[in-house]
Fold this sequence. Notes:
mainly alpha; 0% strand; disordered N terminus
Amino acid sequence: MYRPAKEYEAPWWATILHSFPHLDLTFQTVNSSFNLDDPKYKESLMFWAAAPVIWLLVTLVVFLMYFCYRCCQHDTEKQRNVVCLKWTMAILTLLCCGAVGVGLYGNEEANKGIMYLSESANDAMETIAQIKSKTVAMQTAFNTSITHGINGIRVVYRSNSELSWNQKSDLHTFTDRSLQYARDIFDSINKINLKVRRVDLSSLVHDLKDYSFYRRLGMLMVLGWLMLLCLILLVGIGSSSKCTLLLFCAFGIFSLVLCWMSTGLHLGASIGIGDFCMAPNPFFEELASGQVESDFVQYYVRCDHSVLNPFRSTINSASDKIHQSNKSLNDALSILNKNSMNKTELNHNALLVSRGLEDMLTALMPLNALVDCTNLHKDYIDSLHGICYIALPGILYLILSAAETGLIFSILVVLASKAWKSVGSKKSYLDAEEDDGPFIPRPGGSSPNYYSYPRGRQAAARETIHAQRRSTPPPAYNSNEFYRQYGDVNPPDDYCGRESNA
Length: 502
C-alpha cells in the first residue's frame, strides 16, 4: 500500500503540467494558479482540452479526402501481395491492444487515487464526529446532571430552618458560582461545536464516490469497446473477410471520436490538477473562508506548531472552571454537612453535580487531543497524496493510452480500407494471348479455358508447354483426325472414300 510522506511536496509531473502555457481563447497568457472562480483560468483549461478535438477534426477531414480519392480511383492491377499488409495491420493491432491495456491500468490507478481521497475525507469526518460527540456529551452533562443537582441542593438548604441567614447567603454564593462556572464551560464548548458543525464533508464524500464509480464504469466501457474492435480486426485479417474489414473501418472512425474526446477531457483535467498540486493550501483556505475563520483553516491546513491552537485557550479555560466549580461545590457541602438535615437527598444531589463535572472533565481530556492539528492535517496530507501521487499519474496513463490508440486507429482505418479490395480472392488469371496461332486445338466446352491459366507453378508449367507448341510446326491437316477429336458426329461415308482416292 502507498505510504505518504510526513509532509507534502509537489511531484515532478505536476511541475511539468504546471509549466504548460496557460492561454485563454484569445491566446492571451493568464495566471497559472489554480482558481476555478476565474473565467480566464477556465478558458486556459478549455484551450488544452480543445487541442485534441481540433486534431480529431483535422483527421476526419483527411479521411474524407482520402475516401473520396479511393472511391474515384480505378484499380487496374490484377495482382496484389497483401501478406505484408496483413502483417503490418496485425502488428499495429497488437500494439493498440497494449495501449488499451495501459489505459486499463491508468483507469484503475485514477480510481484508486480518488478512493484514497474519499477515505481520507472519511477519516477527517470521523475526527470531526468525535469532536461533536464530546461536546454534546459535555452539554448533556451540564443540562441533566449539574443543573438538576445544584437546583436540588438549593431546595435542600432553603427548606432548612436551622441555617442562619449568613449561611444561606454563603450557600447561595457557592452554588451560583459553581453553576456559573459550569455554564461558562457549556458556552465555551458550544463555541467549539458551532465551529465544527459548519464543516460538513459528507456531500463531498458522496460526490467523490459517485464520480469515481461512473467515471470508472464509463472508461471501462470505452476501453472494452476499443479492445473488441481490435479483436474484430484480427479476426478479419486472419479470415480475409471483406465484411469484417469494412465493419472495422465504419466503427473505427467512431472510435477515433471517443479516443480524442477522452484525450481532451483528461488533458484539461490533468493540467488543472497539476496546478492544484503545486499550491493546494490557498485553494482550501479560500474555499473554507466563507464557513469558518481563516485562522482556524490555516491552523489545520498548515499545522504550524509555532502557531497557537485556536481551541487551546477555550479548553484550558474550561478545565480550570471545572476545578473551580468543583471547589465551590465542596465549600457549599462543607457548610451543609455541619448541620442536621436530610442527608440522603443532599448526597444524591451532590453526587449528580459531582458526576456531571467528572463527565465533563472526562470528555474534555480527549477533546484536547482531537482538536489538535495532527490528526486532521494527516488526513489532509493523505488526501493530497491520493489526488496528486496516485490519481494524477493514472490520468496521465489514460491520456497516453487514448492518444496512442487514436493514432494507431487512424493508420489501421487507412490500411483496412486499402486491404479490403485485395483480400477475399485467392486466384487471378492471365489475360488471353492475342498472338496464339490458329492451329492450336481448342478444348471442348467442359474443359477450362486454354487462354486463361491460373498463376503460380501450374501456370508456369502450362506456359512452358504453350511455348513448345508454338515452336513446333503445325501437323498435316487430317480431317478424320479432326472429327475424331473435336466433332460430335462422324464424317460422311463418301468423304472417307474421296480421302482415300486422293
